[in-house]
């Protein structure tokens, strides 16, 4: 008779052979790793929030622009006399006109006509009234308001330049 050697077969451990708590830990770690990977991918490549391109950049939070107003409040300012520039803020001449108007000693407010609330005031022809509901102006227009009433106005680039130089 031939003797058979009893070889012990080593059984490879598989995922199914592990205890339940070990399976749970592995699943949790895998899920957390996937979430962290997605977060890092989104932060670096999609939004760029985690990418630090300029270390000297400072963040000041939101800036509040007190000179920009809605068309509905042009007659309700606290000053006795002030200018209101009604113009598309995306216009290439905006900075030049705003700069000219801000050199005046009077306070300056601007109404940005790109905003939906302000678009109703823009028309093909001026209708200068002291009622905001019937006021219609061409783009750009500057108004001089004294004691809650329009006392002067000018439209167009040259008209505004002449109005401010007087």
Detailed description of the structure:
The chain has 166 residues and is an alpha+beta fold. It folds into two domains: 18-46; 71-165, Glutaredoxin (3-Layer(aba) Sandwich). Helix content is 27%, strand content 15%. The protein has helices at residues 20-46, 94-102, 157-165; strands at 81-87, 108-112, 141-146, 149-155. It has a four-stranded mixed β-sheet with strand order 2-1-3-4. A hairpin with a 2-residue loop joins strand 3 (141-146) and strand 4. The mean pLDDT is 83.
Question: In CATH's first tier, which class of the largest domain applies?
Answer: Alpha Beta
Beta percentage is 15-25%
Morphology: rod-shaped
Query: Strand arrangement, largest sheet?
Result: 2-1-3-4
Radius of gyration: 34 Å
Low-confidence stretches: none
- Second CATH tier, the architecture of the largest domain: 3-Layer(aba) Sandwich
How many structural domains does the protein architecture include?
2
Protein topology:
Elements (H helix, E strand, L loop, with lengths): L19 H27 L34 E7 L6 H9 L5 E5 L28 E6 L2 E7 L1 H9 L1
Parallel strand pairs: 1-2
Antiparallel strand pairs: 1-3, 3-4
Offer a quick outline of the entry.
This protein has 166 residues and is α+β, with helices and mostly antiparallel strands.
């Amino acid at each position: 008779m031939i003797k058979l050697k009893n070889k012990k077969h080593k059984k490879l451990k598989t995922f199914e052979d592990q205890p339940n708590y070990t399976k749970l830990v592995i699943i949790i770690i895998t899920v957390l790793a996937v979430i962290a990977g997605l977060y890092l991918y989104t932060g670096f490549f999609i939004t760029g929030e985690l990418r630090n391109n300029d270390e000297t950049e400072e963040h000041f939070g939101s800036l509040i622009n007190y000179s920009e107003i809605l068309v509905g409040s042009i007659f309700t300012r606290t000053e006795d006399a002030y200018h209101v520039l009604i113009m598309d803020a995306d216009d290439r001449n905006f900075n030049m006109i705003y700069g000219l108007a801000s050199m005046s000693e009077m306070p300056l407010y601007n109404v940005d006509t790109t905003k939906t609330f302000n678009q109703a005031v823009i028309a093909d022809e001026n209708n200068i009234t002291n009622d905001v509901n019937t006021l219609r102006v061409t783009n750009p227009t500057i108004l001089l308001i004294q004691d809650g009433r329009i006392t002067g106005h000018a439209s167009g680039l040259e008209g505004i330049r002449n109005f401010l130089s007087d």
